[in-house]
Structure formats: C-alpha cells, structure tokens
Amino acid sequence: MAPMGIRLSPLGVAVFCLLGLGVLYHLYAGVLSNKVAAFRRGRSVDLRELLALCVEAAVQGGREAKRAHDGGVLSSKAKGKTREGAEEMLTLGDLNSHRRMYYLIKNRFPHVQVISEERDYSTKASDAEWNSVIPDEILQKVQSQVVPAEAVTVWIDPLDATQEYTENLLQYVTTMACVAVNGKPFIGVIHKPFTGYTAWAMVDSGSNVLPRSSYNAKSPSVIVSRSHAGKVKGYIDSAFGNNTVIIQAGGAGYKVLSLLNPTDEKYDKADIYIHITYIKKWDICAGNAILKALGGHMTTLRGEEIDYTGSESNEGGLLATVKLNHKELLEKLPNLDQIRSR
After folding, report:
1. pLDDT at residue 5 greater than cutoff 90
2. ∠186-191-196 over CA atoms, to 5°?
3. Is 160 annotated for ligand binding?
4. Given a cut of 70, is residue 32 above it in pLDDT?
5. Which of 12, 77, 232, 277 could disulfide-link 8, Cβ–Cβ 3.0 to 4.6 Å?
6. Where in the sequence is the domain holding 103, given as residue range(s)?
7. What is the pLDDT of residues 279-309, one digit of tens each?
8. Residue 214 domain-assigned?
C-alpha cells in the first residue's frame, strides 16, 4: 500500500500559521518589552539615587583634591583672568577632582548632561564606578522620585576656592555637585575635603543640615567674596548702614554654609550672602538647592530666580538668605546698575 499522506485543508493551513505566529509573537514580545523597559530605565533618573551618587562624587573628588595638596603636588598655573582682572588658578587638585566626579556621574547616568568648571576630558577616570549603595540616612529621609534624563542637568565644581587652596586657606575649600531639574535647583551637595564634612539637601524631601535658630535682619552680618570686598562695601553700607559687619571669605560653597548650622564648627556665621559681580552657576547651584530645600532663597539682586540651563554665568549678582524676609531685603538694596557704573 502506498504510504498515507496528511492533507490539510486551506482552513487548517491558515489556523496552523496563525498558531505559529502567535507563539512567535509571545516569544519576541517579551524580549522586546524587556528591551524597551531597559531603554526607558536608561533614559530616566531616580533622583534619590542621583543624590547618593552626587554625595559620593563630591567626597571622592574632595579626596583627590586633598591628596594633591597633602602630597605637595599642586602643579598650579594660571588659566586666565576673571572679568575683575584676578588670575584664575588651575591645579592638579582641580583636574583630578574633576575627572573623578565627572566620570562617576557619567558612567552611571550617561544620558544626563554634566557641566563641570573644568573642561579636561583627555584622561578618563576608568575606575570611576559607583557601587550603587545609598546611605541609610538618605534612604530614611528621601523618597524615590523618577524624572526623564533629558530634564536633568548636573553642575559640578570640582574645587571651589582654588585661590585659597593654593594659599593654604583650606577652611574655604569645598567640592560641590548640584542637580537641576528643568532648570530649577533640586539637589545640592557641598563637601569640605579637609574636615570631611558634607552637607546635602533635596527640595521637598530631606536634608542633613539645618538653618540656625535666629538671624538678624535689622543689622545683618553680610558675607562677601575676599576678592570683591572693596567693591561691595559701599553697596552694603548704602543698604544697611556704615556699621554693617562685613565678613570676607573665599568660596561660594563656604559662604552658603555660613548661613546655616553645620555640625562642622569651622565657619563664620553670617545672616546674608551678597555677591555683586557675575558668578558661574557651578559655584552657586548646590548652595541654591540647599537653601531652597530649607525654605531659604537665592536670587539675583533684582529678585529674579536663577535658571540653571543655557548660559554658564549668572550676570545679576546674588542675594542669599534663610528665615528672613527676602523680598524686604531686596527692597533695601541699591540699584545694581548704578553701583556698577561708578
């Protein structure tokens, strides 16, 4: 007998094909959905995780700056002049801290824009990998919050107060990281490499630093830059009187901490921080975020909020306060354009 063959009707062939396609769909749909999910995770950022990473970056960057200083290998050189004519210094501490901080953040969040004071990317810190451990203090105080990566800009200052760093005025030196979301300061980290103290805060979430119990609005102590003290004195005297206490200090990070109550005792205590010349956003973003998280304010001297997108410079000076009527203080300040034209 001739072998019997299996014949399928056209309907049977159609059913068989549909079943096969169904199996293939379920097999590949799962793979595809996993890939899409992974892609979406890569294009999103958990801000609590990024806060922990910024703390680690500031600490590791500070360690590099301290190592260069303690080893006597500053290799300092002038990288240009500021608008005021002062020499702007660059040291090995700046560069090594920059590489460590920049690549720690970029290696973990490659889709996030990171803006650093330094621009040297010739030597990558190949071992700059984060262990993804979030400290208990952050886990307890901060809730997870996910945002699109394209909404995030990280501003890092690998070594604030470089001039003071070269002069051995180490109390002013900090490393800083700030996260801006849609241009608004949201996470701030200020680390002091030579004492080991770190202040951090996340807006509408938590902080490890607090304001002081009281501030003096009528006769405030005003902290200003060491390099601009002469120019700003007349501005401050005209606002608050000739007997106003003016504190000269280095580093924007240090000046913000002087408004607060850090556990590190090596700080001047100021009521107001004023700066009348232009200033770079990596200098002020971290402090702005910390003050904002604590209910304080940092604005231009015209009362404008500072936008942390676009230009790297803030041209409008700044007024920083905590637990004071910021608007009333702004009204006491002279017109900035008149002061600059003198």
Report:
1. no
2. 145
3. yes
4. no
5. 12
6. 44-207
7. 999 999 999 999 999 999 999 999 999 999 9
8. no
Judgement on whether residues 200 and 305 belong to the same structural domain of the protein: no
Residues 6+ away with beta carbon under 8 Å from 268: 221, 223, 247, 249, 258
Contact present, 190 and 207 (Cβ < 8 Å): no
Is 35 a domain residue? no
Q: Is the dihedral of CA 232, 233, 234, 236 positive or negative?
A: positive
Residue 210 marked ligand-binding? no
**Which parts of the chain are beta strand (E)?**
44-46, 77-81, 87-90, 113-116, 146-148, 152-160, 174-181, 184-192, 197-202, 206-207, 221-225, 245-249, 272-275, 279-280, 297-299, 313-314, 318-321
Split at pLDDT 50, 70, 90, the class of 110 is very high
User: How does pLDDT run across 54-98, given as a tens digit for each residue?
Assistant: 999 999 999 999 999 999 888 766 555 455 555 567 899 999 999
**Same domain, residue pair 128 and 164:** yes
User: What is the tens place of the pLDDT at every residue in 217-256?
Assistant: 999 999 999 987 777 999 999 999 999 999 999 999 999 9
Within a domain: 135? yes
283 is in an annotated binding site: yes
Work out how many domains the chain is built from and give that number: 2
Q: Are residues 203 and 168 in the same domain?
A: yes
Could you say which of 174, 207, 240 is where a domain stops? Answer: 207
For residues 203 and 259, membership in a common domain is answered with: no
249: β partners:
225
Name, in order, each residue with C-beta under 8 angstroms of 289's C-beta and a sequence gap of 6 or more: 178, 179, 180, 185, 186, 187, 188, 201, 202, 203
Same domain, yes or no: 189 and 227: no
What global pTM score does this model have? 0.85
CA-CA distance, 84 to 86, in Å (whole number)? 6
CATH number of the domain that 269 lies in? Answer: 3.40.190.80
How much helix, strand and coil, in percent to the nearest 5, is found in the chain?
40, 25, 35
Asked if residue 23 belongs to a domain, the reply is: no
Q: Say if residue 196 is in the same domain as residue 122.
A: yes
Amino acid identity, position 75: S
> Counting beta carbons within 10 angstroms of the beta carbon of residue 285, is it exposed (0 to 12), middle (13 to 18) or buried (19 or more)?
buried
